[in-house]
Design brief:
CATH superfamily: Cytidine Deaminase, domain 2
Strand content: 15-25%
CATH class: Alpha Beta
CATH architecture: 3-Layer(aba) Sandwich
Shape: globular
CATH topology: Cytidine Deaminase, domain 2
Number of strands: 7
Structural class: alpha+beta
Number of domains: 1
Order of helices and strands: EHEEHEEHEE
Radius of gyration: 16 Å
Largest sheet: 7 strands, mixed
Helix content: 25-40%
Distance between the termini: 32 Å
Length: 163
């Protein structure tokens, strides 16, 4: 028998003003996107901003649907948009923030399990890490590798082809 553990770390900032200009820009774009989200059922609006390797920044929002679970999360929305509109261009950083009737979340909100899986797959696809910026007001968390949010993720290696 072996005992193993998984450990990861993140950096936490007390205020968005402590971020470097690039991270602050992504978070502000995600914040604007959250205000445009379509969330009439939950009232939980999420915005995402994705910086690509070519410098282009894309926005995504969650979009709810009465035929639950036909909606899509902001993170998967923006990653799908990048894949469709900029094929082969690697995602570099992803910022996420949530807005409720009470205002922007005070604590950073982390992506759901489905989004974590998609982020991990994008990292595997390009062989590079995606920096995750989780916004709250006032605090912000930065995780240097999206795959750290989903230890022991399912991957293409698990889909072994039989001879």
């Amino acid at each position: 028998m072996k005992s193993k553990s998984i450990v990861f770390s993140w950096v936490e900032f007390n205020d968005i003003s402590e971020l470097d200009e690039g991270d602050r820009e992504l978070l502000e774009i995600a914040k604007a996107a959250a205000a445009d989200a379509y969330a009439p059922y939950s009232g939980f609006k999420v915005g995402a901003a994705l910086r690509l390797e070519n410098g282009k920044i894309l926005r995504g929002t969650n979009v709810e649907n009465a035929a639950f679970p036909s909606g899509i999360c902001a993170e998967r929305n923006v990653l799908s948009s990048a894949s469709a509109n900029y094929p082969g261009v690697r995602p570099v950083a992803l910022a996420v923030i949530a807005l409720t009737a009470d205002g922007f979340s005070k604590d950073p909100v982390s992506p759901c399990g489905n989004c974590r899986q998609v982020i991990a797959e994008e990292e595997e696809r390009y062989g590079k890490e995606i920096r995750i910026i989780l916004g709250g007001y006032p605090s912000v968390r930065i995780v240097e590798r999206g795959g750290d949010l989903l230890p022991m993720q399912f991957s293409r290696a698990d889909l072994r082809m039989h001879p």
